[in-house]
């Protein structure tokens, strides 16, 4: 059965996300991605051009999922004028609990920053995500920095499958409440 190009492309990205999560950019073989996706190695090269480009497309997909989780968080959906950092943080934690691959790919994206092209594109997505958090919450610079520092803790805890991640989430909520200005409507 012939699948539309967009469907096939997403299937490859899904398969590649698992492979990159397990092995990183350097350790992932396109043959393994092809086998997992049920396509040929040349087909992946035809669609993506290179392993690095496929990795960057996976990273883009991961950052898009995080952005969507923020936009779909209850504070934003309830049309609060400025949803709190805690609501976005909780949405992020729930996303990672549903799909640990996201945490692993994010960490591999940062680890692959020795490659200039990867560093530039990951940095651009990271900064865009910071701006999105600022736009959604109205948080100041310290609040956004604390949010991302707390998010890194949650990402690492998820990647390591630590048993007491809920404690990290409670601590993170407490910390984010400390940096949330009273005008942002604490939740």
Automatic annotation (TrEMBL):
Alphabetized Pfam families for the sequence: TetR_N
InterPro entries: Homeodomain-like_sf, HTH-type_TetR-like_transc_reg, HTH_TetR
Statement: the UniProt record of this protein carries the keyword Transmembrane helix: yes
Keywords carried by this UniProt record: DNA-binding, Membrane, Transmembrane, Transmembrane helix
UniProt DNA-binding residue ranges: 29-48
Transmembrane segments annotated in the record for this chain: 102-122, 142-162
Domain (HTH tetR-type): residue spans on this chain: 6-66
Origin: domain of life: Bacteria
Keyword DNA-binding belongs to the record: yes
Protein name: TetR/AcrR family transcriptional regulator
Record organism: Mycolicibacterium sphagni
Lineage: Bacteria, Bacillati, Actinomycetota, Actinomycetes, Mycobacteriales
């Amino acid at each position: 059965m012939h699948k539309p190009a967009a469907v096939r492309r997403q299937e490859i990205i899904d398969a590649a996300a698992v492979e990159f999560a397990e092995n990183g950019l350097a350790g992932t073989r396109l043959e393994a991605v092809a086998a997992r996706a049920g396509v040929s190695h040349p087909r992946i090269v035809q669609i993506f051009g290179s392993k690095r480009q496929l990795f960057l497309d996976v990273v883009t997909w991961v950052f898009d999922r995080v952005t969507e989780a923020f936009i779909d968080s209850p504070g934003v959906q309830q049309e609060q004028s400025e949803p709190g950092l805690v609501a976005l943080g909780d949405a992020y934690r729930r996303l990672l609990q549903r799909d640990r691959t996201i945490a692993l790919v994010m960490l591999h994206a940062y680890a692959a920053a020795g490659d200039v092209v990867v560093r530039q594109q990951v940095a651009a997505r990271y900064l865009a995500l910071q701006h999105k958090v600022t736009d959604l919450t109205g948080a100041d610079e310290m609040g956004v920095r604390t949010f991302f520092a707390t998010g890194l803790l949650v990402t690492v805890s998820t990647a390591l499958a630590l048993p007491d991640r809920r404690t990290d989430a409670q601590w993170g909520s407490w910390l984010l409440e400390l940096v949330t200005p009273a005008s942002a409507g604490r939740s």
